[in-house]
């Protein structure tokens, strides 16, 4: 009986999977020659056609306009006020990783209108340090065992030992503390503090909530004397990579942004029809973006923005984005182009990114440019290779 049920279940799963695949194949274009012509909004032209030529006007006019465009059309509003943030150190171990690091497990609680959100932070700080230490903060969208504080379980997704050995601190929180990654459950978290977001057309959803959480963790890190809060890099993979970009765009305290395989509505261009589409992402993950974003399903050309503008809004801070060679769903070429088009904003700060005209070869990282990039050989994932390049990138740019 059980066997029959299991068989029926796997059959159902397979049928659903192949249905999804068929739908993807129908919708997603993987043929470069079939990418239709498209026009991107100019980063340095306002919606009222004003040319932006100076850093001052970028900061005063265009950058806020871009952030507002993303709030209103894509990620939703980012509530900035709350009644109270408190924290407590749940566990501290000065002898973690055989004495190489201090472990802190911190519970951060944010209260607003008598509702609260609790964020569980895992933090390792190198024991040998000269002073406050720069840190990498991962928005963890995969299993919690990836950031195991006991280090019984180790994972390339968050290679804490490798980062500690490089002299940096490493931290992580799990997305489920802010908004469970589920079409129904996502409301149980940050959105309980801001229920008005649920009815607004440009209301925050899960990705916004995760980015909001990253900022609250940074609020804590600013109070931790072992951390150099002016050097905190926000890191995310895939859906977490979309959130890391949004966090860095909204919160200029993040010194650096590392966005791994973030793809559609992450670092990749939307007007360029290759790989995942807005219709697909909004259909499968209706809880990620503002309600208004659905207006652009099968209607990319109507978007008053594109993702190169999101990347540009991070200027002049160092930004590193990645792809994986087999992850065409995330459009490696469209990701590189997006990064390249963001250069103009960096130039306003006198920072020349000098990216090549076409994407670099597989496993050829660009790390000296403030707009770093690599296309790792392999599948959609966050690996030790990616992290070793993040560390290298941080080394280069924190030295400047
Ligand atoms: C996929 C989604 C991508 C990406 C990915 C992930 O199913 O289509 O945009 O976010 O999930 O997060 O691993």
UniProtKB/TrEMBL annotation:
Molecular functions per Gene Ontology: carboxylic ester hydrolase activity
Entries under InterPro entries matching the protein: AB_hydrolase_fold, FrsA_esterase, GCE-like_dom
Record keyword Signal present: yes
Originating organism: Spirosoma profusum
Signal peptide: 1-22
Domain annotation 4-O-methyl-glucuronoyl methylesterase-like: ranges: 108-350
Top-level taxon of the source organism: Bacteria
Name under which the protein is recorded: Acetylxylan esterase
Pfam families the record matches: GCE_fung (PF22244)
Keywords annotated in UniProt: Hydrolase, Serine esterase, Signal
């Amino acid at each position: 009986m059980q066997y029959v049920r299991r068989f029926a279940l796997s059959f159902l799963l397979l049928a659903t999977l192949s249905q999804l695949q068929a739908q993807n194949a129908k919708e997603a274009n993987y043929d470069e020659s079939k990418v239709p012509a498209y026009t991107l909004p100019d980063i340095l032209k306002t919606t009222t056609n004003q040319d932006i030529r100076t850093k001052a006007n970028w900061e005063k006019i265009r950058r806020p306009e871009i952030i507002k465009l993303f709030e209103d059309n894509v990620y939703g509003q980012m509530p900035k006020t709350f009644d109270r943030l408190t924290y407590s150190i749940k566990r501290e171990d000065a002898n973690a990783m055989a004495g190489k690091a201090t472990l802190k497990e911190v519970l951060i609680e944010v209260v607003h209108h008598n509702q609260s959100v609790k964020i569980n932070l895992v933090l390792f700080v190198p024991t040998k340090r000269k002073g406050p230490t720069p840190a990498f903060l991962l928005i963890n969208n995969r299993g919690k065992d990836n950031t195991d504080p006991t280090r019984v379980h180790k994972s390339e997704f968050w290679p804490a030992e490798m980062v500690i050995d490089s002299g940096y601190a490493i931290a992580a929180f799990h997305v489920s503390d802010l908004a469970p990654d589920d079409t129904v459950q996502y409301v149980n978290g940050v959105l309980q503090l801001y229920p008005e977001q649920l009815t607004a057309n440009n209301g925050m959803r899960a990705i916004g909530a995760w980015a909001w959480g990253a900022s609250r963790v940074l609020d804590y890190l600013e109070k931790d004397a072992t951390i150099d809060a002016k050097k905190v890099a926000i890191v995310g993979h895939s859906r977490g990579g979309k959130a890391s970009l949004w966090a860095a765009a909204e919160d200029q305290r993040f010194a650096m942004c590392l966005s791994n395989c973030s793809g559609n509505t992450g670092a990749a261009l939307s007007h360029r029809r290759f790989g995942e589409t807005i219709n697909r992402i909004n259909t499968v993950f209706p809880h990620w973006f503002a309600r208004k974003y659905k207006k652009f399903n099968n209607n990319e050309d109507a978007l008053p923005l594109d993702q190169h503008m999101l990347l540009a809004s991070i200027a002049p801070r160092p930004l590193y984005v990645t792809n994986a060679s087999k992850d065409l769903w995330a459009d490696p070429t469209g990701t590189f182009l997006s990064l390249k088009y963001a250069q103009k904003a960096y130039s306003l700060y006198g920072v020349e990114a000098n990216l090549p005209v076409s994407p670099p070869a597989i496993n050829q990282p660009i790390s000296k440019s403030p707009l770093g990039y690599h296309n790792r050989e392999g599948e959609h994932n966050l690996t030790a290779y990616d992290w070793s390049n993040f560390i290298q990138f941080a080394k280069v740019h924190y030295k400047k």
